[in-house]
Amino acid sequence: MARTNISVDQNIFDAFSVEAARQNKTLFAFANESLSVLTKVASEGGSPSDLYSMWRSMTLLKQFDVITLPADFVDDVTAELYASHKEATLKRFSEIGSRFVTVLKIFAPELLDLTGVEKDFRGLLPIKQLAIKDQGKGTFEIDVVGAGRRIESTECAREFLIAIVRGYGYTVTRQETNIGTIRLWVTSRGLP
Description:
Blueprint (H helix, E strand, L loop, with lengths): L9 H13 L4 H17 L4 H15 L8 H14 L1 H22 L6 H8 L7 E8 L2 E9 L3 H17 L2 E9 L1 E9 L4
């Protein structure tokens, strides 16, 4: 067994010690377990921040009993539902967004915080980019790229996003939807 000293910030050491004790493990056992996992992640091209992002993502997804499916499959199924029951399909996506926002607010208390959560979910959600631009006076422009490969799935993603925006207390004042892209202009309900 190799023995070495590692220097860490006092706050990190204190938090690490508390967590080891909480899990009823020695510092030695907890350090070995932690370093082993981080080494495996790094050896496969990941980083410690990737591990934290994935854990946050999985924690949020567990709240909804989510399963991951290929994006093409989801687009095809969405298009079929949309073709036969357009209004009901759009309503369902809106309802999912309304339910999702309550848990999402735990990780992103404010609308602008969604960009940080999106970075954690980038590998799990069928979007490539989410940008929120502060236009001043409680108004924002929200741009989503990669939200579906067909207009049907993009419109469903738009309804999901609008429900989330409403859950944060904003009203959509204008929108643009094209295949794979959504742009919303939103204003806080508390403003004229």
